[in-house]
């Protein structure tokens, strides 16, 4: 038996009680009795307040009682189902008892709800395990009892079949496929003809064009995110030693020949800039690991370095620890991590990318999975009718979400495809020459007090590079366009601990995954 009235009116317990199993129409009569005792025992000015409290107390108690009764009925039905399931599949399922008296309280209600959910989850797991074992057998090897089980749990069987189809499709998408040599040459010839006829060709590039420079991609078999998903360690790469690949040099040459109008890159390695591609023709949507910016200056002042500036930066933390030599403002990197929105005008150059995409009649995608780029509607002219959108040509080893809308898909390595393409276009491929690397003429040297502000290895200057670093006593850094390579006397030795990796490498991966709560 439990009291209906609060302690202040405990003298009414003998006349206003409610059984824990009750919950029907008797609650109203008992409430009236309780209210009468309250009115008789309290001063008149206290009666409305206490009466309201008692009424609310009774209402909540009755609602909990009804809920517990409902849970009892549900538990009983669940127990009957488990008993029936055990009879059909002996030894596979142990019935879980949910009976017994329950105290009418919120704690009991919560426990009953959790127990109900646990029973349901356990039942589903055992049903799925049972059906999975049956589906692994050939149809001719299944017993009559197993066939009846599949009919009884038809929804589970259909769900498992759908999961199997999805798993196979995802596995096929992750596979790297390369066209046969003859088929590849035929496709490259078609691509070359499209480039010749294009009025405004725009190139989109991804991590696949930098794998030849020993920079791993993200979603390939040995990609950064692929290894992280498998729980494997990511091998470190000395990004300071990377040099522009054959594909980088081909793209620069196509721009020089006025066949390519603009390049939109997802890469942060700065190799497009080092290949000689001019800044106005380049949009590095996710930043450049060699550029740090002072946003306190107007316009924002860029500081191009000959080392990776992302050593101290990470997701939502972009300070590099150095200061602008003109305004003493904090410098930040330009990297856009997964889950962030780029706000810098340069080197992202979103305006140049969107304008080029609007004028494009042909888009060539090289080495990109397009899983990120596809979300940027302004790059695909989605405001146009489908027939008036640019023709899309894709070069990639793996499946991309834009394959269905592509005019041509070439499965192959970027360097191999570009070598065939340049041959068909009758254009000579230039070799990378470090002496002509623009990074040395555009770089802003560190001041003497900043000499030890990083531990990254520097890009080694070409032999015979002249010393044109500024006077360390100057207040302002030189104009970025001036020829100011770093002081050759500076410590350019690599990190004594061995190879290093950029602060942006693999960052944001966990944000893209949904963490499943352990059951």
From TrEMBL:
Its EC number is 2.3.1.286. It catalyses: N(6)-decanoyl-L-lysyl-[protein] + NAD(+) + H2O = 2''-O-decanoyl-ADP-D-ribose + nicotinamide + L-lysyl-[protein]; N(6)-glutaryl-L-lysyl-[protein] + NAD(+) + H2O = 2''-O-glutaryl-ADP-D-ribose + nicotinamide + L-lysyl-[protein]; N(6)-succinyl-L-lysyl-[protein] + NAD(+) + H2O = 2''-O-succinyl-ADP-D-ribose + nicotinamide + L-lysyl-[protein]; N(6)-acetyl-L-lysyl-[protein] + NAD(+) + H2O = 2''-O-acetyl-ADP-D-ribose + nicotinamide + L-lysyl-[protein]. It is an enzyme of class 2 (transferase). Zn(2+) binds at residues 294, 297, 324, 327. Its cofactor is Zn(2+). One of its GO terms (molecular function) is histone H3K18 deacetylase activity, NAD-dependent. Residues 1-19 have a biased composition (Polar residues). GO terms for biological process: DNA repair-dependent chromatin remodeling; epigenetic regulation of gene expression; regulation of mitochondrion organization. Residues 1-26, 453-519 are annotated as: Disordered. Residues 510-519 have a biased composition (Basic residues). GO terms for cellular component: chromatin; nucleus; site of double-strand break. Keywords: Metal-binding, NAD, Phosphoprotein, Transferase, Zinc. Belongs to the sirtuin family. Class IV subfamily. Interacts with UBTF and the RNA polymerase I complex. Interacts with components of the B-WICH complex, such as MYBBP1A, SMARCA5/SNF2H and BAZ1B/WSTF. Interacts with ELK4, leading to stabilization at target promoters for H3K18Ac deacetylation. Interacts with histone H2A and/or histone H2B. Interacts with DNMT1. Interacts with SIRT1. This is NAD-dependent protein deacetylase sirtuin-7. It comes from Muraenolepis orangiensis. The lineage of its organism: Eukaryota, Metazoa, Chordata, Craniata, Vertebrata.
